[in-house]
Amino acid sequence: MKSRIKFQALMALSLLAQSVFALDRQAEHHHGQANAHMNSMGFEQLVARFEAPGRDQWQKPEAVINSLGELNGKTIVEIGSGTGYFSFRLAEAGAHVIAADVDRRFLDYVDRRKTERKLGDEKLITRLIPYDSPQLGKAEADLVLLVDVYHHIENREDYFKQVLAGIKPGGKLVIVDFKLIETPDGPPLSMRIPPEQAQDELAAAGFTRFKLDTKMLPFQYILTAE
Questions:
Q1: Cα 158 to chain center, whole Å?
Q2: What is the CB-side half-sphere exposure of residue 71 using CA atoms within 13 A?
Q3: Is residue 193 within 8 Å of 199, Cβ to Cβ?
Q4: Quick one: which H or E segment has residue 112?
Q5: Which residues are paired to 126 by β-bridges?
Q6: Residue 148 DSSP symbol
Q7: How far, in Å, CA of 67 to CA of 153, rounded?
Q8: How far apart are the first and last CA of the chain?
Q9: Cα–Cα distance list, 87 to 19, 51, 149, 183 (Å)
Q10: Which of 73, 141, 158, 169 could cross-link to 77 by cystine, CB 3.0-4.6 Å?
Q11: CA-to-CA distance for 75 and 73, rounded, in angstroms?
């Protein structure tokens, strides 16, 4: 009888451990859903969404770029550059831009537009990166920019330790991402990262000074980290 009770107790503990492990795995990969959500749309549909004429009204790219300070001659890496919505504007503002993305289709799209605009490599280059690394050289960038991308990244502490190593002394990281409010564009609320959580994660990665702007953009916050 005692052995039967022991066996049942061990089975219960085993099932509990499996349940906890499954929950941990689910939490670990929760934001991988953001990539699946985006990729559920076709490439042309994504391009149309990223380049939608109405995007300027809520994204306010000129205001965002003006808030970055003097860009002439600075090296800016845009992680998750997509169609180059920001990358081309940054190049026009005088920066040397590295448009980095995990999707070769977007990089090909940017390269075609770059040729059409007759932009040289001194203004803009593209870089294919993996999901788990920004592939930055040591102290390569004056500024690293992520727009609508932070919530896509998993293992963020490790990822942004690599980002920090790629930023020059005195440089900065700028995160633009969606607030936890209902918006006509953007990912589902369950996939969004509040700025307080993003700041805690970046602090764990080694960033020490932060500035948060929740006023400039109607749907998004801007978190600057140094």
A1: 14
A2: 23
A3: no
A4: helix 104-116
A5: 99
A6: S
A7: 24
A8: 64
A9: 44, 13, 14, 24
A10: 141
A11: 7
DSSP string, 117-132: TT--TTTEEEEE--TT
Residue 68, φ and ψ in degrees, nearest 5: -80, -10
Q: What is the pLDDT of residues 91-103, one digit of tens each?
A: 999 999 999 999 9
Report pLDDT for 41: 76
pLDDT of amino acid 19: 35
Ramachandran region, residue 73 (left: φ > 0; alpha: ψ -120 to 50; beta: rest): left
Task: Measure the CA–CA gap between 4 and 16, rounded to whole angstroms.
Answer: 18
Question: How far apart are alpha carbons 137 and 141 in whole angstroms?
Answer: 8
Structure tokens at 178: 């969606």
Q: Tell me the pLDDT tens digit for each residue of 45-75.
A: 999 999 999 999 999 999 999 999 999 999 9
The residues, any chain, with a CB within 8 Å of residue 29's CB and separated by 6 or more, are 154
Task: Provide φ and ψ at 118, rounded to 5°.
Answer: 60, 45
Please give the order of strands across the beta sheet that includes 167-178.
124-128, 96-101, 75-79, 141-147, 167-178, 220-225, 210-213
What span, in angstroms and rounded, lies between the C-alpha atoms of 205 and 83? 28
For 154, the token pair is 């998993």
CA dihedral 82, 45, 60, 160 (to 10 degrees): -30
